[in-house]
Amino acid sequence: MKKVLIITSSLRHRSNSDALAEAFARGASEAGNEVETITLKDKEVHFCKGCLACQTTQKCVIADDAPAIVQKMYAADVMAFATPIYYYELSGQLKTLLDRSNPLFTTDYHFRDIYLLTSAAEDETYVPQRAVNGLEGWIACFEEAHLAGTVFAGGVNSPGEIEGHAALKQAYEMGKAV
After folding, report:
1. Where are the domains of the chain?
2. pLDDT digits (tens, 9 = 90+) for 48-88
3. CB neighbour list of residue 20: distance below 8 Å, 6 or more residues apart
4. Of 21, 31, 81, 153, which sits most exposed with the smallest number of CB within 10 A?
């Protein structure tokens, strides 16, 4: 059994990227893993100040919701990040959280496998590439971790529009394979 942490970053109710996260969670849970999903929708996550105090203390000096989330990231064996694609990139909420996870850099973090679940109104295959590259840049700072898989749901814009999309089955199967 693995500890699976899924972090969703859409601010919309019934978002398409949240639906991907739910499918991934269902698969991972059915495979016997311990699964927790955190949404950034109702969280207060401020920008990193770049003070680097966390490099010696492994704690962030900013008092908001990020330190508790980062602690859960530390303990997870597997992480999946779900994000809508905005202007061909990760959502700002997710990028801000990744920046705030800097305290993990000098720790013996547990995570190894990282997944990215994305949705966008555009449906061309190149649409998620910059978001994937952004996450790979973060992953490159954690030598023991790697990008284990991605799922992209293109052509979905309105909340709930993803219903019946093939990417939901892909996300479920990817979660089940964790």
Report:
1. 3-176
2. 999 999 999 999 999 999 999 999 999 999 999 999 999 99
3. 82, 117, 118, 119, 151, 153, 162, 167, 168, 171
4. 31
